[in-house]
Please model this.
Amino acid sequence: MAPRTLTVIRWENPMSRSFRYAVAFVLFALAAAAAGAAPADQAAPAPDQRARKVVILGFDGADPNLVDRFMADGLLPNLARLSREASYARIVPPNPPQTPVSWSSFSTGLLPGRTEIFDFLMRRPHTYIPDFALAERQRRVFGFGEWNGALAGGALGLLAGLLALVLGRAVLRRWTRATIAGLVVALACGAALTPVFSNLLPVEVPAAKNNRKGKPFWTVAAEHGMRVGVVRMPVTFPAEELPEGSRMISGLGVPDMRGRVGTPSLWTSDPRFSAGNNQFSLEIRKLPARRGRVETEIVGPFDYPFHVYVVDRAEARWREQGLSAAEIAERREELKRRLEERGHPEQIRLPLMLEITDEALTLEVSGRSATLRPGEWTDFVPLDFPINWLVDALQPLRGMVRFKLISLEPEVQLYMSPINFHPSSHPIFYTWPPDLAEEVAERTGLFKTQGWAIDTWSYPSNRVGGIELFLEDMDFTVSGFERVMNHMLEQDFDLYIQVFYFPDRAGHLLWHNLDPEHPLYEPENAERFDAAMRAVYQRMDTIVGEALAKIDDDTLFMVVSDHGFSTFRRQINYNTWLYQNGFLALKGKTRTRNLEQLFDRDVRNVDVFSGIDWSRTKAWAMGLGSIYINLVGREPQGVVMPGEEYEEVVRQIREGLEQAVDPETGLHPVYRVYTRDEIAGQYDAEKFPDLRASNIITYRVSWQDTLGGLSTAVFEDNDRTWSADHCSLEPTLIPGILFVNRRLDVERPRMIDVAPSILAELGLDPPGELDGRPVWKPGAR
Model:
């Protein structure tokens, strides 16, 4: 039976776009003045000949084995038609076969060493601290920075003075007295308004930098005058500033409003409920009662401009003054307290009121209300996070969530999705032009703006909401992006690309009941989960059919995935192996890690490897199969000398891991250990891992190893419902799919071959030497 959805709230634009642009100009005038006027770029030259139109649909994680199976069963008519009338091949991802790595190579035609996207995680240069690899958190000066308050106050004081001058001249009829009156009013108003605007205008605002290197093929096309549309492509945040006529909606990499990959919330009356041993982000909030009126809150985004950055600047000044750590800590807490009193908490919180009866739950938040019965969802609920009256009036910080009432009995469970940026709110641009999300939402309805849009965190967290919550959220999310595709395909782009992520998300969470040998296999649920996976691939085929209906025979049409999938039965912890084999030393107990430690502000700058004795450690593992040598001159406490000693440590680790045997299965879990010279092409030796261990089918790097932790054993069962993967596998074992209505010249194309092939089809020269090569002749069918 289809899930019941209660649509209780619809978004309406509170102000016309023209009016909001007019008032927003007032707030950003200072920034514009500071930046100065820049000369307009000259128009890029048109290509030598009119390019053919190109439409590319990407389906993250679509597995060729499942595609072949379902096509053989007659369930994928549109893909079956493409396989008969076009080319169908298995496409090899780069090494490692991870989503951001593979799509970055797809976009640029470069190997991971040159894109510098080689894992989900990277270490901060010259430290042992992990961080996310896709984008770098930054900040930028707003307007004139520290002078904003004085200049704004002075400007308004000057206006008041001029007004006093005019009025004084009319009343006093003498310029001297009127001028004195004007000066007095100007100085008084300026002095009074300066502290007011210092509290209203930020000194710094958040910014971000895309870490991917290389020029994407769509950028080359746009620079040559083609109209380009790019929707939900991974590693495109912040959105790229494209020439007029081109459009972008960023994909994987766009955070939720709390700056995380995604953090759903669960309110429960069960005092004993926990998220289990998951590694994911689920915030659990306990309700004090099962019935009646309950007051709780929603934890929202950090207030970076008016709290976090203020504290950071103060701490920097105190360190320059030579204050001790204890003095800085004391002053820091005092400053945070004063900022809270002035209405600038570190994190913005919204009151959430619940009225719970035996039949339903009514929630009230941000001036809106909804009533739910068990099993029902709300539509998107806008959330307005207050900053101050000026920002709230001109550029409000608005998010949106969906609620689902999971149960009232035996305990209350109320679910809230991660907080997405509302399309009207884009403090860091996730679309280009900046108002594109708003424009599209007005025509298609609201859609999720967060990069990792489907909730894969709740089900692995003690199976919150059951698999139904995941499937319902997936269906709702895909429907939104499907509407976006149908709208965008009507805009007559010369090159259009859109990526859908749902095959990957379904693969991760459904597989344990597709594999009878998985530790969590449940025979009674096998058919149900298999049917759900069939529905996922049928949905993919339906989307392909919708796109085919909107293009003509002269359009190059491509369906592609970045990798395939494998069941994840057993895990290997490389740090534990390195420890047992003398390459890693400990000085105390290591702690269990989870993803929260990469997001929490107070933890991100702490050495998560605090239990490692670096003075006796030669190598350590971090990320999804990456191994780093503790090299003298590169690492803060390096012990391995470059040259012969380095090469010997590398040789020993390679040979040892490739020979390792899992005593439980008798298998060699490590397919091969690669050096960076073998997989990266050109690379920055300060950043790229020294070694990359790839796994055979059924194995993956362990959960703890991903975050730099150690387990008690090298080999363990995977007892998580995140039960299939690809990230640390041998790339040749899990190819993706490639359908294209061109005659391929090779049997096994690579992801790095797509960019040069598309550029050749469009008659455009590549932007320098690429690692890929064209794999079909332009126009060849």
Summary: Residues 1-51, 601-605 have pLDDT under 50 and may be disordered. The domain at 51-117+213-248+482-564+734-781 is CATH 3.40.720.10 (Alkaline Phosphatase, subunit A). The CA atoms of residues 129 and 608 lie 7 Å apart.
